[in-house]
Write a structure and sequence with these properties.
mainly alpha, 14 helices, disordered N terminus
Length: about 475
């Protein structure tokens, strides 16, 4: 078996080229880990935050953003200590989230974690595909508005844009593993700052231009156009969107596995988590607050494609193109653990199959594996097909966030910490950690119900393969 593959080689490090587990020496740093986190965190969720503020209002919107940010940061610190077991500095490495859960909590939790993690990753790629298609369509629409005026509808089907994004992901999906994603993450991070800054600047310009959009402490009021039941469901869905905006814990240990051994990985990962989550929370707050101030209760689900942002059209185009480039990279960051899981399982199941194990040199630079090429291509095609069938942006993001935030970001990190630290049952620390976990479970359940209701309403009026922007 080749050294540095996805599998432990057992090679002894005689020349300083390998780590303590026989794999090629890891070279990740605080900068690369922070870039991975920002790429994974600042995704399509940021685009829906002004809509979330319109549903929740100033008070609940800001409180939820800060609360989710703080809870995510706290549990990420706990999770970083689970990379090695039993000791967080010198223990045996857990290469991914599932291995950490298995080492600390056992087999049943291991299987439940896999279901949650890989379900989230698959759902996330579908969400990113939908978002990217909407952003590409927005470029065409803004140019149409600029040429023909806002009285013209300028609507178009999204199918071609979904296919374009899928084709680009087929190429990018051949990046073999997380260790080769540093450049992709850095570019994606730059793009995320780009479109967030453009959205913030356009919001400020709209506010400075004398916009008097109606806002309130509690969001869209109940009245003629909003029943109390609709208000409740929309608030629940908005909570799910905010949770989705912080959903990156599922790849935290995979990111940590790219770091150098010295200084200790858990210390670097904690600093990277602090940098990434703090940066994300500041950008989220600015985008949510300024977007809501600019558009008020009429804020659209994707604020870069909102009606008021089609001038200056060239700046809107740049912003939406930045979204697409960022999500091209974010797609790979979030799905690589799932790719690795399938390929490791297949390698162990059929170790003698040359189709699965053989690597071929391609023009002397790239290495091609036929199994990786074929199965990843099929995966991207299927994810794109699902995105064409269910192109419901806000409800889809909300459902992913609601169903996965609690188990992956809250429950497993807390339970592993209790197990590793041997916290005594019914002690003060044990009680408040359990209360935190249970509270997040209730919030996640309500958000999931709201998102499911939103999907049901959207499906009832949707024509198959007829998504229009």
């Amino acid at each position: 078996m080749q050294k540095g593959s996805s599998f432990t080689s057992g090679t002894v490090d005689f020349n300083g080229h390998f780590d303590d587990d026989g794999r090629i020496r890891r070279t990740g740093t605080l900068m690369s880990a922070s870039a991975h986190i920002i790429t994974a965190v600042i995704g399509s969720g940021v685009l829906s935050l002004s809509w979330c503020f319109a549903q929740l209002g100033w008070i609940a919107g800001i409180v939820l953003l800060v609360a989710f940010g703080f809870i995510t940061w706290f549990t990420c610190l706990l999770l970083a200590d689970c990379y090695r077991s039993p000791d967080p500095v010198t223990g045996t490495r857990n290469y991914n989230y599932m291995q950490a859960v298995k080492a600390n909590l056992g087999g049943l939790s291991y299987r439940l974690c896999g279901l949650s993690q890989y379900g989230t990753q698959v759902g996330g790629t579908i969400g990113y595909t939908i978002t990217s298609a909407i952003s590409m369509a927005a470029v065409k629409r803004s140019n149409c508005f600029h040429k023909h005026g806002h009285d013209k509808g300028c609507h178009s089907l999204n199918n071609s844009y979904l296919l374009i994004f899928g084709a680009m992901e087929i190429v990018l999906s051949q990046i073999p593993n997380f260790h080769k994603l540093s450049l992709v993450s850095i570019v994606a991070t730059i793009m995320s700052f780009g479109y967030s800054s453009i959205g913030i600047a356009l919001s400020i310009a709209k506010i400075a231009g004398g916009a008097h959009s109606k806002t309130s402490l509690t969001g869209i009021p109940v009245g003629q156009n909003m029943t109390s039941m609709d208000k409740m469901w929309n608030c629940f869905s908005a909570i799910g969107d905010v949770a989705f905006a912080y959903a990156f814990s599922l790849v935290l240990l995979e990111i940590q596995d790219t770091l150098k051994s010295s200084p200790p990985e858990n210390k670097v990962m904690k600093r990277a988590s602090t940098v990434g989550i703090a940066t994300s929370t500041v950008l989220y707050t600015l985008c949510g607050v300024l977007g809501y101030a600019a558009f008020g209760n009429d804020a659209s689900g994707n604020y870069l494609t909102g009606f008021g942002f089609y001038e200056p059209f060239w700046l809107v185009d740049i912003g939406n193109l930045c979204v697409v480039v960022h999500l091209l990279g974010a797609y790979q960051v979030i799905i690589q653990p799932f790719f690795a899981f399938v390929e490791i399982w297949s390698h162990n199941k059929w170790p003698e199959s040359r189709f699965i194990t053989k690597e071929y040199n391609f023009i002397g630079i790239y290495r091609i594996n036929l199994f990786r090429l074929s199965w990843r291509t099929v995966y991207v095609i299927l994810a794109t097909l699902v995105a064409m069938i269910f192109p419901f942006f806000n409800s889809f993001l909300g459902l992913i966030g609601a169903t996965t935030y609690w188990p992956l970001t809250v429950y497993f990190p807390i339970e592993m910490h209790i197990s590793k630290a041997k916290i005594e049952r019914n002690s003060f620390t044990w009680i408040w950690l359990k209360i935190l976990s249970f509270t997040c479970l209730i919030v996640a359940f309500l958000a999931a119900v709201g998102s499911i209701r939103g999907l049901v309403v959207s499906v009832s009026t949707f024509e198959l393969f007829h998504s229009v922007s």
